[in-house]
Amino acid sequence: KAGVTQTPRYLIKTRGQQVTLSCSPISGHRSVSWYQQTPGQGLQFLFEYFSETQRNKGNFPGRFSGRQFSNSRSEMNVSTLELGDSALYLCASSPRVPELFFGEGSRLTVL
Amino acid sequence: KQEVTQIPAALSVPEGENLVLNCSFTDSAIYNLQWFRQDPGKGLTSLLLIQSSQREQTSGRLNASLDKSSGRSTLYIAASQPGDSATYLCAVSEGSGNTGKLIFGQGTTLQVKP
Hints:
Chain A has strands at 5-7, 10-13, 19-24, 31-38, 42-50, 53-57, 64-68, 74-78, 87-96, 99-102, 106-110. Chain A has 111 residues and is mainly beta. In chain B, strands 2, 4, 5, 9, 10 and 11 form a 6-stranded mixed β-sheet that branches. In chain B, strands 1-3-8-7-6 form a 5-stranded antiparallel β-sheet, with no helix packed on it. Chain A binds chain B through residues 4, 31-33, 42-45, 48, 55-56, 58, 90, 92, 94, 97-105, 107, and chain B through 31-32, 34, 36, 41-46, 49, 89, 91, 93, 97-107.
C-alpha cells in the first residue's frame, strides 16, 4: 500500500509569492491533517480535513488555507509568503484519528 | 493552554544501553498520548499510542508509560542500537480525541554510538 505522498518535496520561493502544496493520502483514508515544522517552534498544527470539510484549524494567519477534494487529496496554500514561512510542511492521513500516517514533507524555503 | 515539554533535548549513549526519554504536559485532560520517531529530513512514524485510560504500551524494545495525574510520560528503549538514532517526539490530543490535531513537544534527539 502506497504511503502518504507530498509534492513538491522541495521548493524555493521569494517573499510575496504564493505556494500550493499537495498531499495524496493513503488509499481509504478520509482524514488529512497538515503541520508546519520549524527549528524554533517545532511541530504546529495547521488544519484538518475530513470528507472535504475543515474539521479543525490551528492558530495561523489567514494567509494559510487548505482544501480537500472528493478523492481525499488535499492542498494547502500560503499567500504573500514571508521569510518566517520557511519550514517543513507535513501532511498526515488517518483511517481513524488520532492514528496518523505522515508523509515525508514539503520543504519550503522563502528568500 | 496545553504545553508539552521533552527533556533532555539531546542524548548520546553507547550501543546496548537502556535509556529513558521524558515527556511532560501541563493539562492532564488529555485524550491520549503518542510517541513518534523522526529521521533527519523525513516524516514522522508513530511508535506507540497510549489511551488516557491506559498506563503503558509496549512494542518490541519500546515501552511507553503514562501518568495523567502527574502530567508525565516516559519512553523506555531497551538495549539501544545505532539504528535507534533519531528524534523522538511525544504528542497529546485533547477533548474527545476525535481529531488529527496533536500538540507536540520539541523532541529529544538521540544518538546511539556503535
